[in-house]
Amino acid sequence: MAPDPHLDSPPAGDWTVDELMIAVLASCFEDGDQACNGMASFLPVAALQLAKLTHAPDLVWLAGAVGLEPRPGPIPASTLEAPLWRDALMYVEQYGDFWTLALNGRWLQKFCVGAAQLDRFGNANNSVIGGDFHAPKVRLPGTAGLADMGSLGKQLYYWNPNHNPRSLVETVDFVSCAGYLGGGDERERLGLTGGPELVVTNLCVMDFEPDSKHMRLRSVHPDVTLEQVLDATGYEPVLPPGGVPVTPKPTAEQVRLIREVIDPHGMRHREFRRR
Amino acid sequence: MRVKQTTLAEAASLVSDGDTVALQNMATQAAPMAMVRELIRQGRRELGLVCLVGGIALDWLAAAGCMNRFIGNAVSMEQFGLAQHYRRGVESGRIRMEELSETALLARLGAGARNLPFLPTRGMIGTDLIDINENLTMLDDPFGGPPVVACRALVPDVALIHCHRADRHGNVQYEPTALWPDIGIMPKAARRVIVTTEQIVDSDVLRVNPDRTVLPGFVVDAVVEVPWGAHPTSFNPLYGYDAALHLAWAAAARSDDDVAAFLDSYVYGPADHDAYLTAVGGVERMAALARWETG
Question: Where are the beta strands (DSSP E) in B90-174?
Answer without folding.
Answer: 96-99, 118-121, 136-139, 148-152, 158-163, 165-166, 172-173
